[in-house]
Amino acid sequence: MRPPSAAERHVRSSCFLLLLFLTWLAMTSAFPIPLNLMKRSGERLPWGPHRQIQASATTHRRLTSSLNTRILAENASVWNTLDGSPPLVIARGGSSGLFPDQTSAAYLFAATFSLPSSAMYCDLQLTKDGYGICRTGIDLGVSTTINYTFPGLISNYNVNGVLTEGFFSIDLTALQVLNNISATQPYLARSPSFDGLFDILQPTDLVDLASLASNTTLFWINVEFPTFFAQHKLDMSSYILSLMVDMPVDFISSPEITFLKAVKTGAPKNTPNLVLKFGAADDVEPSTNLTYGAILKDLKTIASYASGILVPKDYIWPVDNTGYLGAETKLVKDAHTAGLAVYASSFVNDPATPIYNYSFDPVREYLQYVPINGTDVDGFLTDFPTTASEALACFRGATPLVRKEGTKPFIISHNGDSGNYPGCTLLSYQSAVSGGASHIDCPIQMTQDGVPICRESPNLAPNTDVSTHSNLSSRISLIPQLQDAKGIFSINLTWAEIKTLKALMYSPGGDIDRNPAYTQESIITLSEFLSYAKNTSAGILIDIQNGYFLEMEVGLDVVGEVLRSLNASGLSVSDRVVIQSEDSSVLRRFQQLANYTLVFKVTDTNVLVTKTEVSDVKALANYVTLPRGLVQVANSGYLLNKTDIVDLFHAQNVSVFVSFLRNEFVTIPFDYEADPTLEIDTLIRSYQVDGLVTDFPATASNYLSNSCSNLKTQATTGLQYEIHEVKPGDLVTNLRPRIPAAPPAPTIRLNVSDGELALPPTFSPRPSPTAETPARTPSSSPSAAPRWLKPNIFLLSTAFVTSVIYHYHG
Ligand SMILES: *[C@@H]1O[C@H](CO)[C@@H](O)[C@H](O)[C@H]1NC(C)=O
Ligand SMILES: *[C@@H]1O[C@H](CO)[C@@H](O)[C@H](O)[C@H]1NC(C)=O
Ligand SMILES: *[C@@H]1O[C@H](CO)[C@@H](O)[C@H](O)[C@H]1NC(C)=O
Ligand SMILES: *[C@@H]1O[C@H](CO)[C@@H](O)[C@H](O)[C@H]1NC(C)=O
Ligand SMILES: *[C@@H]1O[C@H](CO)[C@@H](O)[C@H](O)[C@H]1NC(C)=O
Ligand SMILES: *[C@@H]1O[C@H](CO)[C@@H](O)[C@H](O)[C@H]1NC(C)=O
Ligand SMILES: *[C@@H]1O[C@H](CO)[C@@H](O)[C@H](O)[C@H]1NC(C)=O
Ligand SMILES: *[C@@H]1O[C@H](CO)[C@@H](O)[C@H](O)[C@H]1NC(C)=O
Ligand SMILES: *[C@@H]1O[C@H](CO)[C@@H](O)[C@H](O)[C@H]1NC(C)=O
Ligand SMILES: *[C@@H]1O[C@H](CO)[C@@H](O)[C@H](O)[C@H]1NC(C)=O
Ligand SMILES: *[C@@H]1O[C@H](CO)[C@@H](O)[C@H](O)[C@H]1NC(C)=O
Ligand SMILES: *[C@@H]1O[C@H](CO)[C@@H](O)[C@H](O)[C@H]1NC(C)=O
């Protein structure tokens, strides 16, 4: 194959850029990755620096680094980095958390939605004919389709002393890499839907891509295996030196000292930043045979050949074996004293093992490394550069927003702060209140003897230690009205029995464990909840679960008991109390008997909602709670079109809450990049929902304090940034991931009353818990006929209770 002349490449590249620009202009609102950018048609020819070209003959917008403009442009006063500029966001292979890394989509997305002057990071490898390509890991089998195209090329090489099996770039020509293999997603937890859709790139391709998005993008080349390539007669340092003629290279990093020294010696005066990349402390540096731990002890020597170090984040904030942060090391401070910048690596939004101090919120993790008063790291190497950008620009130093009571959007806890503490315990409610929840919730379950308690589910097994109480194992039963599987249900245990149990952490996310540290928290009754809640300024949401079943089939008067507890706590006339139920009959009964704000809870995600159903809801309740799956419809993990369901409710003045938000994204849309801030932002800014029901109220509350959104205009970080607006349908429409066709939209309409009869308006005060009365025998047959005679008795008895309380206190 004849290499193309400089003129040929110029023409080809100009056409390519022009095409991209036109497509960009045509799609200003959507994320603009044209399909033809993913897989270019026709043969791709390699672009190589060893055929040196005149700077004027290239289409590159510039050949000098924009690093200096970056430093001068920003306000230095607020950052305690080495040079006072804001920490650098380094996109590891672009937005590699969302797309296969080091592809056009990943780089263009990162450059478009990250802070200006972010760096695009390429892991450089060389082909056997000496061309550079961007791929991470010496085995190309991990991140490409090579196993399918060239299965015979699998081989074994000694890589830094370790015999390694795989597919190696040194066995492939550049033409093969560019034309016959494509990128795949190496991480199982991330979406494989883009596998095979994107070409492998060369370092010079980054410049074209990044310049589409931002003129200030920086370029960071990491050379991971210089010794290995040298052993195969491929000299990385001379490649890098000639690459610097072809494109701006702002940072060069490597885990190998000898390589960095060679680049420093050979590079021209405007040497880019040279950065020593650290492996684990006991890994051996291949060119000196010293461990990285030993090398780190001598920062002065490092400063003689490098301007900075790139270290795994636990070099700065170590983590103990219970998932908590230990004490901060002095590395950043010491390195700054030695004149070295510190870049921290391995930031992801989807870690395999959580660090509990961050509450599964990646924004909090970034902020840990840029304290207002301490020493700040100089950069973050991250798979999710948009999250790093928003943390730096919108959340650092943001002052907590003090919101007036009743201000929307509400932040409604789900089982208290159940993301961090065992749900529905005093600890979880206290944490929800101090974290900024506007409302705390008690999901009502009933005991066999009629005591309303706050519990996450009617089945006690998943969230208490009931299974360790062998004397209660006989209570296991199957109650199909409550759930499909067997369980130990609160309605089969008395309060005296339930009181002996401890609440436990419940992790909805399968493999992802929430913090198991708290095992001694008590289960509380509704009355205990109310006496705590009354003393706070938070709103109180009482969620009556399975009320119709309990009233009609079990014979437990949950409505009556809730009203009784509210009266007894003195909250009977409080406008802070909100009653929620999924049963229309329960809400109707409240409409008749009391004057609380009512919320209808929709539980089904596969129903059609039109104006008619909205009217049905409006007749019952002031607010509606919708599951997030009904608001944000996804297919195979990608958001489809934006729904109009929130608008439909708003058109009839019904406020909308969305449930449940969970930081660890147990049900994904990938579009949100496992970043809870992006989902909250989308629900609040694009959907304009009136409340979020969340396991992590503090994350929602922190969001409201951010200094970027129009909810609060004053910028505190000196950085210009807008939180990336996720547009449902963008990725699916523009990039066509390989996913099955979307299932048809639901045609079955939401049935608000669901055939429920009116509840029998009984009210029988339960026996005092101390009395030795036998447990109430549940009535076996549903009482179909409402008993209309009793409401007055109810009203009388509440009046009586109330007057007793007032009398007593007065
Ligand atoms: C830099 O920030 C400080 C404090 O926020 C402010 O007083 C000053 O005006 C800023 N300077 C520039 C050049 O923006
Ligand atoms: C290559 O693919 C085959 C099946 O297609 C599989 O059995 C094999 O494990 C793969 N090899 C590697 C190195 O991924
Ligand atoms: C590699 O790509 C070239 C150019 O598209 C094509 O002609 C050739 O057949 C491909 N080889 C393989 C093994 O797929
Ligand atoms: C980049 O700079 C060029 C020339 O100064 C300008 O025309 C273009 O709009 C800029 N692009 C972006 C994305 O800022
Ligand atoms: C490092 O150790 C290996 C084997 O122990 C040896 O072959 C190599 O020469 C050493 N390299 C240096 C630079 O000392
Ligand atoms: C992390 O959480 C643990 C447990 O709450 C606490 O003891 C520790 O101080 C926290 N560490 C930091 C750095 O906040
Ligand atoms: C930072 O230091 C100032 C003054 O020393 C102090 O008032 C402030 O509370 C500190 N902020 C934090 C977050 O520690
Ligand atoms: C069940 O056993 C626990 C101790 O494991 C005891 O405290 C409790 O009283 C027993 N309950 C009954 C109903 O026997
Ligand atoms: C639990 O309660 C339900 C409903 O009252 C009843 O049908 C079932 O038999 C009870 N199970 C046990 C084990 O007591
Ligand atoms: C209510 O708050 C006051 C002051 O914060 C406190 O002294 C009191 O113990 C609290 N009462 C309850 C029941 O928590
Ligand atoms: C219900 O509350 C509203 C406002 O809080 C009040 O205007 C209305 O009179 C109350 N109705 C009853 C029946 O108490
Ligand atoms: C998305 O929804 C809007 C209105 O809700 C509709 O006009 C548009 O055609 C839909 N787009 C697709 C691709 O379904």
TrEMBL record:
Keywords tagged on the record: Glycerol metabolism, Glycoprotein, Hydrolase, Signal
A GO term for molecular function: glycerophosphodiester phosphodiesterase activity
Leader sequence residues: 1-30
Enzyme Commission number: 3.1.4.46
Segments of this protein annotated with the region Disordered: 760-784
UniProt catalytic activity: a sn-glycero-3-phosphodiester + H2O = an alcohol + sn-glycerol 3-phosphate + H(+)
GO BP term, pick one: lipid metabolic process
Keyword NADP applies: no
Domain GP-PDE: 87-392, 409-704
Low complexity bias locations: 769-784
Sequence similarity: Belongs to the glycerophosphoryl diester phosphodiesterase family.
Name of this chain's protein: glycerophosphodiester phosphodiesterase
